[in-house]
Write a structure and sequence with these properties.
six-stranded mixed beta sheet, alpha/beta, Rossmann fold, single chain, about 675 residues, about 50% helix
């Protein structure tokens, strides 16, 4: 078990977080969520022991094995995919390497040396078998298959793979090693939908502790049994998946807002008292007491519900032809290899928002290149409509930004002719307002770089937008804003993403690309969107559940006969007149009650002042030295002082009660 208590971290005057406490025990699968730049990666580094907190402590057993998958690409190794994955098996991998060395030694030794090698080989082989070594390679192949590797890929050198596939190798290695604590930073960024479905099932059955950072709401919902939100400089833990987290957070914020309002009313009442009696000698002690109370008061902080720092918006594009792109009988491949797509017929029309789904390597990128005119088919025709302007966002676009330039300088490249537009104002709409526009690109987080790259392609009006994994590294609030912007966008969208929530929110059609085919589906078919997840539909109800019944009732109410309508109209008029009369009477009564309350308040205030004056008079008498010469007089003054103070306190409470009642 790993426990962290009271963790705080600052960079200069900026406090990332304070008093963060969490517990990672077997069976706990915790999703860590929060906005870009709130300190999620820093918190993970502290838990890993790579960074020290300013305050607080992290405790875990010395022999605890921690596995970590970062967002950054792992280093390139010289071995094969299978070798790299098996290397994660620790002692078993060392024994496998030892066996290979001994097998080589057996061919070069003779006599006593050969006998010694044979004995060593027998002992090593026995230990390897006891630890499940021979089953390990089969498990490694199963993990690789689940993450999308073909059987032949196991023998490929890792250095031949792209960055996304190297991340999959690193994930496979971690899963095979089965650490006591598994920490994953955006594990779905480089996976396709098939692999995500497999990973969700694997992690749902994870017996150790799991902590993962993700913006994928469906993935969080499927895997997590707890959610920790890092917000407002601290953390809060919720039990359940993403759906439960949203509901519980809303309830918590509602309670906090109500408490903050009550506190605000109380503070205003105390401040009013202080302002009124600040210069009145008889109230000096009460004024000072309330001032001290205000100084000690811990203000209730209410986190922003949306924490939205960007306002993605697309400028209005020119109108394109009705047919934006059309493929007829298209077959395409590269060089002399087997064709990737065969006999594809596809029509993309103006205003459609189409999501391309399917396993990695099936041809989604090839299909996009055909549709935007970057690739010519081997057979068939690919036609681009007239007046089509295209902007393309690719997965590694954020990585292609110049780290030596400022945000403003980099943004200027995308808008060489700003016209009357103020670029700094435009940058502010993407979350880079004020000094943030002058920060170096190198100092930005992964999510901030993605946001800048998206802003650069959104700055100029286009009517065909191609987005390849646009939500990678974005925080949840930014994902929400991007979804809203894409929904409002009047142009055509081609969307390649594994983010199922984004697809459901934006797309009106799917193209399933696999096995050399591209099959069009109107609407968002859950069976296509998440293959193999039969529980998906039952787990998430329709947002319009019960809508048919409501519509039927509305239609029934909207078609009464004329007599009934007239009767209802007359009744409504009478009801309105009664309500107006009742309202006037209530207002009159309210005014009378208000006047009476103010009279009571003035009367109580006069009595309170007299009681305070009596207390002051007795205190002055008790301060005289000669008073203590007569014991009877001391006792009498003490009793009188207590009674006067008690009466003054009662009148003060009554004054406060009436003041609060009037304020309502």
């Amino acid at each position: 078990m790993l426990t962290a208590s009271g963790l705080s971290k600052s960079f200069g005057p900026r406090v990332l977080f304070a008093d963060v406490t969490l517990k990672l025990a077997n069976g706990r699968r915790i999703a860590l969520v929060g906005g870009n730049g709130v300190g999620k990666t820093t918190l993970v580094s502290i838990l890993m022991g790579d960074e020290s907190p300013d305050e607080g402590q992290v405790h875990h057993p010395k022999d605890m094995r921690i596995g970590y998958l970062p967002q950054e690409l792992p280093g390139i190794t010289d071995g094969t995919v299978l070798d790299d994955v098996l290397a994660g098996a620790g002692q078993v991998a060392e024994l496998a390497e030892r066996l290979r060395d001994l097998e080589a030694a057996m061919t070069t030794t003779t006599g006593d040396d050969h006998a010694k090698v044979l004995d060593d080989y027998g002992e090593t082989q026995s230990r390897f078998e006891q630890l499940g070594g021979y089953a390990l390679e089969g498990e490694a192949h199963r993990v690789l298959a689940g993450l999308g590797f073909a059987p032949d890929d196991a023998d490929r050198p890792v250095r031949e793979l792209s960055g996304g596939w190297r991340m999959r190798v690193a994930l496979a290695r971690l899963l095979l090693s089965e650490p006591d604590l598994l920490i994953l930073d955006e594990p779905t960024n480089h996976l396709d939908l098939d692999s995500i479905a497999w990973l969700e099932e694997r992690l749902r059955n994870w017996t150790g502790a799991l902590l993962f950072v993700s913006h994928d709401r469906d993935f969080i919902d499927a895997v997590a049994n707890r959610v920790i939100e890092l917000v407002g400089g601290t953390s809060h833990e919720y039990v359940g998946g993403f759906a439960e987290f949203v509901v519980e957070r809303e309830e918590r914020l509602t309670v906090l807002e109500a408490a903050a309002r009550r506190q605000s009313v109380e503070v205003a009442r105390v401040e009013k008292f202080v302002e009124r009696f600040r210069y009145k000698a008889t109230k000096a002690r009460q004024v000072q007491s309330r001032l001290k109370t205000l100084e000690k008061l811990e203000k209730i902080a209410v986190p922003d519900r949306k924490q939205v720092i960007a306002k993605f918006a697309f400028p209005e594009p020119q109108r394109s032809a009705r047919v934006v792109a059309e493929l007829e009988g298209v077959t395409v491949g590269y060089d002399d290899d087997e064709p990737i797509l065969r006999n594809v017929d596809l029509v993309l029309e103006r205003g459609q928002k189409v999501a391309l789904v399917g396993p990695n390597g099936a041809g989604k990128t090839t299909l996009v290149r055909l549709l935007i005119g970057q690739l010519e088919p081997n057979e068939g025709t690919a036609t681009i409509g007239t007046n089509v302007d295209t902007a393309v966002f690719v997965q590694d676009q954020a990585e292609n930004l110049d780290p030596t330039r400022t945000v403003y300088q980099e943004f200027m490249k995308a808008v060489p002719k700003p016209g009357n537009r103020n670029l700094r104002t435009l940058l502010g709409s993407f979350g880079f307002s004020g000094d943030a526009a002058d920060r170096k690109v190198a100092d930005l987080s992964g999510g901030e770089r993605t946001r800048l790259a998206l802003g650069m392609i959104m700055a100029e009006p286009v009517n065909l937008l191609v987005l390849d994994e646009p939500t990678n590294h974005l925080d949840l609030p930014s994902c929400d804003v991007l979804e809203d912007a894409l929904t409002a966008y009047t142009g055509t969208v081609l969307l390649v993403t594994h983010d199922r929530f984004l697809v459901r929110s934006v797309a009106d059609a799917l193209v399933d690309v696999r096995d050399g085919k591209a099959v069009w589906h109107d609407g968002v078919d859950e069976a296509v969107l998440m293959p193999g997840d039969g529980a998906l539909t039952s787990r998430r109800g329709s947002p319009n559940a019960g809508g048919d019944r409501a519509d039927t009732n509305t239609l029934a109410r909207a078609n009464p006969n004329k007599n009934t309508a007239k009767k209802n109209s007359n009744t409504a008029k009478k009801d309105t007149a009664k309500k107006d009369t009742a309202k006037k009477a209530a207002n009159k009564k309210s005014s009378a009650n208000d006047r009476e309350l103010r009279k009571q308040l003035a009367r109580v205030e006069r009595q309170w002042e007299k009681a305070e004056a009596q207390v002051a008079l007795i205190q002055a008498e008790m301060a005289k030295p000669e008073t203590y010469e007569t014991p009877e007089k001391i006792g009498e003054l003490t009793r009188g002082h207590d009674e006067a103070k008690e009466k003054a306190a009662e009148l003060m409470s009554e004054w406060e009660r009436l003041s609060e009642k009037i304020a309502r």
